[in-house]
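Incident log, structure service

09:12 report received: a user says their structure output differs between two submissions of the same chain.
09:20 pulled the input from the user's history:
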Amino acid sequence: MDVSPLLTPANASQAALDPAVLYQFKIAHGTSAAALANGMRVFVGPRADPFFFDLFQFFSFLPDRNYQTAGASPKAPFSFKFPLEEETGGLADARAHVERAMRRADAIYDTPAERRAWLHARSAELALEAGDTDAAGRAANEALAIFPDHVRALTIAARVALAHGDPAAAEAVAKRAVMVQPNPEVLGLLGDAQAARGETVDAAATRDELLAVARIGDALHVNDRLVALWEADHGVRVDHAYDIARRELGVRDDIYAEDTLAWAAARSGHWDVARRAIAKALRYGTQDPAIRRHEEAIAAHPAG
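09:34 re-ran on a clean worker, output below:
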């Protein structure tokens, strides 16, 4: 599926959305997205990252997109109901829905391994957001048993290992992730694990690699919030992090871009910007622990 970011009215059967298909819907704050009755803006497009919208909830907002009323032939529903809930405060419901989708996918013998692993990794990610590190570790290991090179599952496994105070395990899985895809998040986790183990030379080399990735991104005009978050977290090049976050907002204006801007702004001393951005990041009630930690840190700094 490769459609316009604008959601056009479903005037023909081919414009209807089928709950048997995986679509990606993302919440946006910018103007280049369809406005729902409650003021929320969304857009639809090909699956590029793991933020999915509840299709049946979408039908309740815009019933003319429902396959039953738009003329498309109905199919057995198999929709993923967790992304909107994840971003709007319904984390427990999101976890239950991804668990259901995961078990159904596991029960279908010809479900591709990578898709099954993705669902297990999403289960791990949501568990980690809820602070359930044991469940997150189990789900990440399940994903890796299905698809050993799944980068998201490796990333979550590294986070869990660090949370459990096991930097050696974190380093091992982070190295596996870097071999598959050396993105800023896994490089940051690898560097943190190496630093925690006292491997200062290796940690410095990993940090240099991460900064090289950032320089390449700058040269290619790639806006990477992961770089901005790492720099803000570690107090490294915080003005650069702030610049990245501001550019990122113009590309992907969602709650995570607002949070990145808020945190980078706070770390670089732009407190008024930080307060406005964190308010936007929290406008739908997300329970994401990283965003909530940033909120607490920003709130602790007096206005004026």
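09:41 both user submissions now match this output. Likely a transient worker issue. Closing.
09:42 reviewer note: Residues 1-17, 45-54, 72-81 have pLDDT under 50 and may be disordered. Residues 1-79 form one domain.
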